[in-house]
Every structure is written in structure tokens, then in C-alpha cells.
Amino acid sequence: MANCAHPKGVEKMLVFHGAMILVIDGAKLSLFRNRGRDFAIDLELVEHSVQHAAQTADIGTDKPGRSFSSVGHGRSAHETTDFHQADEDDFARAAIDRLNALALQSDFDFIIVAAPHVLGFIRPRYSADLKKRLVAEIDKDYAGRPAADVAELLLNYTA
After folding, report:
1. Residue 94 and residue 100: Cα distance in Å, rounded?
2. What does the alpha-carbon distance between residue 112 and residue 138 come to, in Å, rounded to a whole number?
3. Rounded CA separation 50/45 (Å)
4. Residue 23 — left, alpha, or beta (φ > 0 → left; ψ -120 to 50 → alpha)?
5. Could you tell me the residue ranges of all domains in the chain?
6. What is the pLDDT of residue 93?
7. Taking a C-beta distance cutoff of 8 angstroms, is the pair 22, 111 a contact?
8. Which of 138, 121, 129, 119 minimizes the C-alpha distance to 99?
9. Half-sphere exposure in the Cβ direction for 75 (13 Å, CA)
10. Rounded to whole angstroms, how far apart are CA atoms 82 and 55?
11. Which CATH architecture has domain 12-52+80-156?
């Protein structure tokens, strides 16, 4: 991660010109590009997407299945599929696939700001190219917030 003594003497993160910042949770995504320099962050919205996922109760109506033990009289229930979580996982997977493709065809620095559970889901899916260019991961849920809030988070972030 690029850290530097901030003009006020505190270690702060540098966000280089052209850096791409992905802000994501399970249903909202914003991709920004920094048009500014170092500590003068100026975020331009490149892409914004919102997924309107239905709740599991609205999608799945079946009760969990049951199975019988092959030996004895035991029975057990199968866990109900969480369709809402599956939709959020698909959304996050598509977003990281897009970022992996960007990392392959560009030389941008990347910063990922994600809700902690989303960050845990997408981290194993980073390509080698993305890992090389990833300067920071911030485990905060800032999805849906305006660019000014994201810029403030980046300016005040310390590793």
C-alpha cells in the first residue's frame, strides 16, 4: 500500500492519479477513477449498478427437505437454500470478474472498499494481475454513498 507522511505529519494513504476504486456490498456497486493527485482526491463515477434481489421467502416456497438414515431410524433436515444470499454472491462474483478483466488490460492501481462479508467472499477470486495492482482493501460498507464520502474515507484511511 502506498503510504506517505501526510502534510500534517500523519501516515495517510496516497491515492494516485488514475487509480480505480471499487465500492461494493451484496447489492450495490460503484466504480470510481481518481482524477485528482495524491492527497487531492477527485473521484469520477465510472460505473454504478444496483441489484434488486428478492428475499428468499419470496423466491423459495418449499420447506427444507428431509432424509432418512440408511441405518436405524434417524432422520435429518437439509438446510434451506438462501436464494437472496446466492443472488448477492453472483453479483459480487460478476463485479470481481469485471475488475479482474480491467486489471489484465490496464496498469491502474486498484483499491477495494467492501462490506466485510463481501470482502471475504471476493478475496479468493482475485486474479494474479489484480493482486499485483491492489494497493488497499478497506473493510467498510460504503456502497451507495456519494463520491465525497468515499474520498473522505480514503483520505483518512491508515493501514
Report:
1. 10
2. 6
3. 14
4. beta
5. 12-52+80-156
6. 94
7. yes
8. 129
9. 5
10. 9
11. 2-Layer Sandwich (3.30)
